[in-house]
């Protein structure tokens, strides 16, 4: 008895491909892409001061496009290709149809699906880094930073942890969907880059209100719902483990958000919307390294931790440590991504269930993946301690990698263009950089006339910028 015609293999659907898995993988990749465009585009655009709305949103949009070209040009091979050294793959172009239509190195998928799915992961990482740099970074410097950092930092972390040939992969580090590769990396790199770029204007650091909280919430909602694909796509199959990962993701996130909200109300007396968004993000980040390998009750405990520890470090400890105050981390990615990623990695090393690890990895030697809690319970304490050691080794490597490589990238760019915008441009924001404003309610002619009569910018104080602005209008 033959298969139904819609399931029978043909040239476009070879025997090794599972249509359901491939369909889910493309859907999951699209959900992650929507986290970036438009999710983080409108989250950043709404969460910053009005004069920075366009610049902040455009930094995210540019990074998404730039990473795609790098990814198919050389990044995918450096992250998942043949081993060059223990922590890095050989670069190669992922554009040939013979290669893209073949079976991926994992799962019953064509390589094209794997390339696209891993691209959106690679793309969101520098966009998260941008969260630490908004409101002062030179856009040309950002255009150079994204491909350089992607090439010399992201690909090393991805190969080391996710590629079967990577040294941390062989060590047994559990990073289900990017708690280390994406979030710890972006948090440390963002904080490091913020140090080299320098701070915003003093008045922007003192007061930086969102220009559109409803738009910010819309972006946050896309980020949250898009995480269904972020963690649900990590097994590369439409499996029971993928379902558990999705449920754990949302349970942890809701718990973290509510924990942060309760702490805000208890200490400050008001339920903060921005605080709730921060709690949401820390929950999403914390569950990511262990989404499909921990019990649902463990996801609640992880949410309680991610909603309380980063809250304390951000609202209390940050003010007490001089170095944290000195570095202008615009959206506190150090707390929301680096710290939450570290918590998630450690808690994954403690709560990882051997059976769930087997379902996820499906490789010989899966027995080595065991959380410390289950090692203590089953008499395999040494195995549990070994897993915790592997998790800590992964944290140490990613932290050191991103401090060093991000610093080298920033120092190199500084030789070509300034990292930070000029003071007079910082005073004006979007219009001085892009010649556009986010919430213009008149046309250009009216704006030109109004600017001549009653300039919003003091020509005596910022002569070069106003002169440039006037000449642009005359050209129009």
From TrEMBL:
Transmembrane segments: 24-45, 52-74, 115-134, 141-162, 177-198, 210-230, 242-261, 273-291, 297-318, 330-353, 392-417
One GO biological process term: ammonium transmembrane transport
Superkingdom of this protein's organism: Eukaryota
Gene3D superfamilies per record: Ammonium transporter AmtB like domains
Cleaved signal peptide residues: none
Any Gene Ontology CC annotation: plasma membrane
Compartmental location: Cell membrane
Keywords: Ammonia transport, Membrane, Transmembrane, Transmembrane helix, Transport
Lipid bilayer topology: Multi-pass membrane protein
Domain Ammonium transporter AmtB-like intervals: 24-439
KW Membrane (keyword) present: yes
Family matches, as Pfam families: Ammonium_transp
UniProt-recorded Gene Ontology molecular function terms: ammonium channel activity
Family statement: Belongs to the ammonia transporter channel (TC 1.A.11.2) family.
The name this protein goes by in its record: Ammonium transporter
The species this protein was found in: Nicotiana tabacum
Taxonomic lineage from the root: Eukaryota, Viridiplantae, Streptophyta, Embryophyta, Tracheophyta
């Amino acid at each position: 008895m033959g298969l139904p015609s819609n399931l029978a293999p043909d040239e476009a659907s070879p025997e090794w491909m599972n249509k359901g898995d491939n369909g889910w993988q493309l859907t999951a990749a699209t959900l992650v892409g929507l986290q970036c465009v438009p999710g983080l585009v409108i989250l950043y655009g709404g969460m910053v001061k009005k004069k920075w709305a366009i610049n902040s949103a455009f930094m995210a949009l540019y990074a998404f496009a730039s990473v795609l070209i790098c990814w198919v040009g050389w990044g995918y091979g450096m992250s998942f290709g043949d081993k060059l050294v223990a922590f890095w793959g050989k670069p190669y172009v992922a554009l040939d149809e013979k290669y893209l239509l073949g079976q991926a190195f994992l799962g019953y998928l064509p390589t094209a699906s794997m390339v696209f799915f891993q691209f959106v992961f690679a793309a969101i990482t520098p966009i998260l880094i941008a969260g630490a740099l908004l409101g002062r970074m030179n856009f040309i410097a950002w255009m150079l930073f994204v491909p350089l950092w992607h090439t010399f930092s992201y690909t090393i972390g991805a190969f080391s942890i996710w590629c079967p040939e990577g040294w941390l992969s062989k060590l047994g580090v559990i990073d289900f969907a990017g708690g280390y590769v994406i979030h710890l990396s972006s948090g440390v790199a963002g904080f490091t880059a913020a140090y080299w770029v320098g701070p915003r204007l003093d008045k922007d650091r003192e007061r930086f209100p969102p220009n559109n909280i409803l738009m910010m919430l819309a972006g946050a909602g896309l980020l949250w719902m898009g995480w269904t694909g972020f963690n649900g796509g990590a097994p590369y199959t439409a499996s029971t483990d993928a379902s558990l990962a999705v449920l754990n993701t949302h349970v942890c996130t809701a718990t973290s958000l509510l924990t942060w909200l309760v702490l805000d109300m208890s200490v400050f007396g008001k339920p903060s919307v921005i605080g709730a968004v921060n709690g949401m993000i820390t929950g999403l980040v914390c569950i990511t390294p262990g989404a499909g390998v921990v019990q649902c009750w463990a996801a609640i405990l992880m949410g309680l931790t991610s909603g309380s520890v980063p809250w304390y470090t951000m609202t209390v400890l940050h003010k007490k440590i001089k170095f944290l105050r000195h570095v202008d981390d615009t959206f506190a990615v150090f707390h929301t991504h680096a710290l939450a990623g570290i918590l998630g990695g450690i808690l994954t090393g403690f709560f990882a269930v051997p059976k769930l690890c087997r379902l996820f990895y499906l490789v010989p030697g899966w027995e080595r993946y065991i959380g410390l809690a289950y090692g203590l319970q089953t008499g395999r304490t040494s195995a549990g301690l070994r897993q915790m050691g592997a998790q800590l080794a992964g944290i140490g490597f990613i932290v050191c990698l991103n401090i060093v490589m991000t610093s080298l990238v920033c120092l190199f760019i500084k030789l070509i263009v300034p990292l930070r915008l000029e003071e007079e441009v910082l005073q004006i924001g979007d219009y001085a950089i892009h010649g556009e404003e986010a919430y213009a309610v008149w046309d250009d002619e009216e704006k030109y006339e109004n600017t001549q009569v009653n300039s919003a910018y003091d020509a005596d104080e910022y002569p070069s910028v106003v002169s440039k602005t006037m000449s642009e209008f005359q050209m129009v």
